[in-house]
Amino acid sequence: MSFKNIKGHSRIISLLQRSIMSGRIAYSYLFVGPESTGKKTTALNFAKVLN
C-alpha cells in the first residue's frame, strides 16, 4: 500500500489499511482539518490503493 510517504496520522492510516484488507470499504470518507495537514495526499493515496 502506498501510504509510506505520509508522515504522522498513524491512527488514520491504520484505519484505512484495515478497511482495505478486510474488504469493508465505506461508501464515503470525509477528510477534514486545517490546511496543509495531509488531507489531500491521504485521500489521493487511498484512491490509488483502491484502484
Would you kindly provide a brief summary of this structure?
The protein has 51 residues and is mainly alpha-helical. 49% of the residues lie in helices and 0% in strands.
Describe it.
- It contains two helices and no strands.
- With 51 residues, the protein is mainly alpha-helical.
- The protein has one domain (10-50).
- The longest helix has 13 residues, at 10-22.
- The chain is globular, with a radius of gyration of 11 Å.
- The termini are close together.
Helices and strands in order:
Blueprint: H1 10-22, H2 39-50
Defining key terms:
51 residues; mainly alpha
Strand content: under 5%
Q: Structural class of the helix and strand makeup? A: mainly alpha
- Helix segment count? 2
Which assembly state applies to the chains in this document? single chain
